[in-house]
Amino acid sequence: MKKYFYHDGQDQVGPFELEELKQKQINRDTLIWFEGIEDWTKASKLPELEDFFPKTPPPVNNINNEKISNSLYISNSILEELPAMVRNELSSMSAQKQEEFVEEFKRKRKSVGIGYLFILLVFSTHYGYVNKWGMQVLFWLTGGGLFIWWIVDLFRIPSMVRNYNKDIATDIMRNLKAISR
After folding, report:
1. How far apart are CA 161 and CA 19, in angstroms?
2. Residue 58 in domain
3. What is the sign, positive or negative, of the torsion defined by CA atoms of 89, 94, 95, 96?
4. Rounded Cα distance, 51 and 25, in Å
5. What's the total number of domains in the chain?
6. Angle (CA) 2 8 11, round 5°
7. What's the average model confidence in pLDDT over 59-69?
8. pTM check: above 0.70
9. Whether residue 113 is found in the same domain as residue 47
């Protein structure tokens, strides 16, 4: 019968028979040694302890995304733009309500390309484009932060539009839920 030793982080402890070892507070990363193996090995790597540790489930995010996409009738390109809360709510709605949401979202969402046109060609009105008129006035009054702010905003346009679209999606969902009550 094999005699097992384990390392508790400070000392080696043992010897134990397999059933005794299973009674100890070991985890899958605990180092185990027994006669017949060259070096200390993680408990999860030993065949005789393989079933002792519960299998690690896949990440919850993957499961949720699969469940959501199974009950949604919306293209993936639009789903990627939506916050998780909106996707979850949509998955519990009928196909007709989802279609209403998508139509409203497509009508109100903003485009990164148009955002760049506003900053470059339309008097730097990119904040107005995402409905932040207070920031727009401040931007104008400071001359785009002496153009430093303007240069920084060239890199921020995609995130500004993405955040605007997420806020719009949340507002549309809130309105749809209010109407359905």
Report:
1. 60
2. no
3. negative
4. 16
5. 2
6. 90
7. 49
8. no
9. no
Average pLDDT on 100-116 reads 95
Q: Say if residue 158 is preceded by a cis peptide, omega within 30 of 0.
A: no
pLDDT at 66: 43
Let me know whether 72 and 47 are in one domain.
no
Its sign, for the CA torsion 40, 43, 45, 49, is: positive
Query: Would residue 59 count as lying in a domain?
Result: no
Dist CA 43 CA 107 (whole Å): 57
Residues 73 and 100 sit within 8 Å (Cβ to Cβ): no
pLDDT tens, 116-140? 999 999 889 999 999 999 999 999 9
pLDDT, tens digit, 9 for 90 and up, residues 146-161: 899 999 999 999 999 9
Q: Tell me the helices (H) and strands (E) count for the chain, helix number first.
A: 10, 4
If asked whether residues 94 and 140 sit together in one domain, one would say: yes
Q: What range defines the domain where residue 113 resides?
A: 67-180
